Amino acid sequence: MWPTPDTQVSAICCKDSKCIHFYYCFILTASSIIRITIKMSMCWQPSHRLLYSGSVAGKVHAWDIDKGEQRCCLQGHTDIVMKVLGVDYLDNIVSGSLDTNIHIWDSYTEQQTAKLRGHKKGVNSLSYKSNNRFLISSGFEPDVYVWSPFVSTLLYKLRGHRAVRP
Questions:
Q1: How confident is the model over 25-82, as pLDDT tens digits?
Q2: 127 forms bridges with which residues in the sheet?
Q3: What is the pTM of this model?
Q4: Where are the domains positioned within the chain?
Q5: Comparing C-alpha atoms, which of 90, 58, 85, 87 is closest to residue 73?
Q6: Which of 2, 104, 110, 149 is geometrically suited to a Cys-Cys bond with 114, CB 3.0 to 4.6 A?
């Protein structure tokens, strides 16, 4: 579920019915339903009034909730998109996938501006820290990666726990 703060609308993605339902906080019935493929992650970008969702088909969809329709489809991943992150400060959407790549998309042009490579087993978490201007990612491996989204460079690889073998 993802609430949209400026409109008091909640978006709920349902795996069984393959829909995104939009609920107004003061009305308990669905206001609109969008038919979709199964989604793994959603994020709201208030500056564009769009809901972005990552799919099992490796695509990132942008939904106009006012019109109840898809605005665009960002294609570039080759596996399930596990995380979608809106970075309002940069007017970017960032997506992480099981294909081990992170894609940075321009919100205005709807084009890919960068592709970050380094993960070995897929990406399942993304965070942007505006005070340091770092993009942080983790996946199905013990390490955490710290990126500069401005120059598409891996800045740090923070080593995580390793299994100890007798």
A1: 443 444 454 555 567 788 888 888 898 999 989 999 998 878 878 899 999 999 999 9
A2: 136
A3: 0.79
A4: 38-158
A5: 58
A6: 104
